[in-house]
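lol forgot to send this yesterday, sorry. struct tokens for the thing we talked abt
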């Protein structure tokens, strides 16, 4: 039975996520459980009979009981710089050992010269709970520091926000490099501001996975819909590009999806950067066919270039999968174009 999903902030990205490149850099103490767990997926699990040579195994960051003045903290690098809109300090499974209070600071690197700014004042935490807070600071940050008072365990830290696009020259692997020319970027990448806005279904894998960096580590790292019952109809996902641009190469990767990949795929585009989501979902909009319906193979990287019907410029893409299934990544390689 599928568990209820954790509470999240719609329209925002977890900037600290390990999948995005977020990582823990240092902490005052992680005697019982590693600081690296803070950015892992999920809310953490509990294994009743699992122990280490230091005590109970816990899926989170946990410091020892403090017997001297002071408090513990942990510094994390965000996977992508961005404006922080909300925080989730999740104490899942930490019931008699959670910190009663926490605060959060943020900075823009390099850390040697960065100035730390408090984005969450010292606030009470509930045990075994998602502790959700909104943040009101318009600046983009690259790092956060979680302070817990005085000690204890936190399962996960989610830093919900909006990515500040970097548009750095992409690092290309040996399969992609021959297909991408100088000056082209992945217009859909989350690190470039791309975002999944809506989809017909995301039962097995969230839609935001589709635009993450790198290739998925396993089947859970992609976007996957449930089996469509009854058969008529198909699934779809609506993507906002990081910037309007012309698409020259589409990459659709079914990595790890072997018996549950879509049979076929089609992609359409539209240049409507100012349109609200409700308008973009209107089937009467003049979407242009970018990629006509094509067959897919399992566990394969598909590159489409010569057969693209039109190339834009587009601000949004709509991907239709027939009838259902999973895709791990989508890339839209092309050139950014200035608004007219």
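and heres what i got for the seq, position by position
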């Amino acid at each position: 039975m599928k568990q209820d999903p954790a509470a999240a902030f719609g329209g925002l990205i977890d900037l600290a996520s390990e999948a995005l490149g977020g990582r823990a850099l240092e902490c005052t103490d992680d005697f019982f459980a590693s600081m690296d767990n803070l950015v892992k997926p999920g809310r953490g699990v509990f294994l009743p009979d699992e122990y280490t040579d230091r005590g109970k195994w816990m899926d989170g960051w946990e410091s020892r009981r403090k017997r001297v003045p002071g408090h513990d903290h942990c510094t994390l690098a965000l996977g992508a710089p961005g404006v922080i809109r909300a925080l989730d300090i999740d104490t899942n499974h930490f019931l008699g050992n959670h910190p009663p209070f926490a605060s959060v600071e943020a900075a823009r690197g390099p850390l040697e010269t960065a100035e730390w700014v408090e984005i969450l004042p010292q606030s009470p935490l509930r045990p075994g709970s998602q502790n959700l807070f909104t943040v009101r600071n318009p600046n983009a940050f690259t790092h956060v520091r979680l302070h817990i008072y005085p000690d204890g365990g936190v399962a996960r830290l989610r830093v919900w926000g909006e990515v500040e696009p970097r548009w750095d020259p992409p690092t290309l692997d040996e399969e992609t490099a021959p297909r991408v020319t100088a000056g082209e970027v992945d217009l859909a990448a989350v690190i470039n501001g791309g975002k999944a806005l809506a989809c017909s279904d995301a039962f097995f894998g969230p839609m935001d996975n589709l635009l993450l960096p790198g290739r998925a580590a396993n089947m859970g790292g992609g976007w996957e819909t449930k089996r469509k019952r009854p058969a008529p109809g198909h699934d779809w996902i609506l993507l906002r590009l990081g910037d309007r641009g012309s698409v020259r190469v589409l990459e659709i990767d079914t990595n790890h999806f072997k018996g549950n990949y879509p049979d076929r795929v089609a992609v359409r585009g539209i240049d409507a950067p100012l349109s609200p989501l409700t308008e973009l979902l209107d089937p009467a909009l003049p979407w242009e066919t970018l990629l006509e319906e094509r067959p897919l193979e399992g566990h394969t990287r598909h590159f489409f270039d010569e057969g693209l019907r039109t190339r834009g410029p587009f601000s949004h893409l709509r991907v239709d999968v027939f009838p259902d299934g999973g895709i791990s990544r989508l890339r839209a390689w092309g050139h950014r174009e200035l608004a007219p």
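The first helix runs from residue 277 to 280. anyway ping me if u want another try
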